[in-house]
Design brief:
73% helix, 1% strand
């Protein structure tokens, strides 16, 4: 994993957990590279390019951290599956947005056209569930399936709201929970599928939801203020696409972006409070809290 592409608090996670986490993250990367191959020369090239574009890998990291250092191969497969779903949604989002760039590189739709981009996204989705089908239990498949349905519902809601400057902050947060929060929740639970309603499950679900929403809030701030050389896209991309985000809602009302940034930080505090009430080991809580800090300190 390239540590230069993640925020300093997240690189600190890798250092604190150096005895086990970097090797697990590299195992996920290796599985992603292997799964991107095959399936025909064209699809393999586009899937490989999507993988090569990199990313923060926060979701698979959350799977591994939540599962803990004693988790086995099933956690690595679950982490791989989460990232494959995330990659698939990015490819499909770029089709819907006709986006030319993703992380500073040409998107699949820009490079290979709409039809092949749709096929690449579908391939990545199918490979995700095939990963869980090897040795995952029904609960893991259910968790990822529910998160995938939420992603679709969130995307549909975003499309319905396009260019509608009257939407409320509550509507925006509802949409963000579907599009982003649910997959973060899933990442925190899927490595411990038997604890959904007991043990550390409720705390991890709350933690994942809050940092997922915080991540989306800051992502939308960065669309307005983020340095293009770091974010990999031009400022104002969401606005041009008609996506009315909370920063734009607040700008229309008050002209203050810091309110949204502070809202994200408050959600990170709530996420940490949820962990403090959990049955997780102190070392495990510390690592998850560092990830939460990294969510809101991107490019700040």
């Amino acid at each position: 994993m390239n540590r230069t592409i993640v925020p300093p608090p997240v690189t600190l996670v890798m250092e604190v957990a150096e005895a086990w986490l970097p090797a697990r993250m590299e195992a996920v990367e290796e599985r992603l590279r292997r799964l991107a191959k095959g399936h025909g020369e064209g699809l393999a090239a586009d899937a490989g390019a999507t993988l090569a574009a990199g990313g923060k890998r926060l979701r698979p990291m959350l799977v591994l951290l939540s599962a803990g250092p004693g988790a086995g191969e099933a956690a690595i497969r679950a982490a791989t599956a989460i990232e494959l779903v995330h990659m698939a949604t990015l490819v499909h989002d770029d089709v819907l947005d006709a986006a030319p760039l993703r992380r500073g590189r040409p998107t699949v739709v820009a490079r290979s056209g709409r039809d092949r981009a749709l096929a690449v996204g579908d391939l990545l989705f199918s490979r995700a569930f095939a990963e869980l089908g090897r040795d995952g239990d029904r609960k893991q498949v259910e968790l990822l399936s529910m998160a995938s349905v939420a992603l679709a519902l969130g995307e549909l809601a975003q499309r319905r709201d396009a260019f509608d400057g009257s939407i409320s902050a509550e509507r925006y947060l509802e949409r963000s929970e579907l599009k982003t929060g649910r997959l973060f929740e899933c990442a925190c639970l899927i490595g411990r599928p038997g604890e959904g309603r007991k043990g550390a499950g409720p705390a991890l679900r709350a933690f994942g939801r809050e940092i997922g929403l915080a991540f989306q809030l800051l992502d939308d701030v960065l669309d307005v203020t983020g340095p293009p050389e770091r974010t990999g896209k031009a400022r104002g991309t969401d606005l041009l696409d008609g996506t009315v985000t909370l920063p734009l809602i607040r700008i229309a009302a008050t002209g203050v972006l810091n309110e949204v940034r502070e809202g994200a930080r408050r959600r990170v505090k709530l996420a940490k409070l949820a962990l403090q009430r959990s049955a997780l080991e102190p070392d495990q809580r510390q690592l998850l809290e560092l990830v939460a800090d990294g969510v809101v300190e991107r490019y700040s």
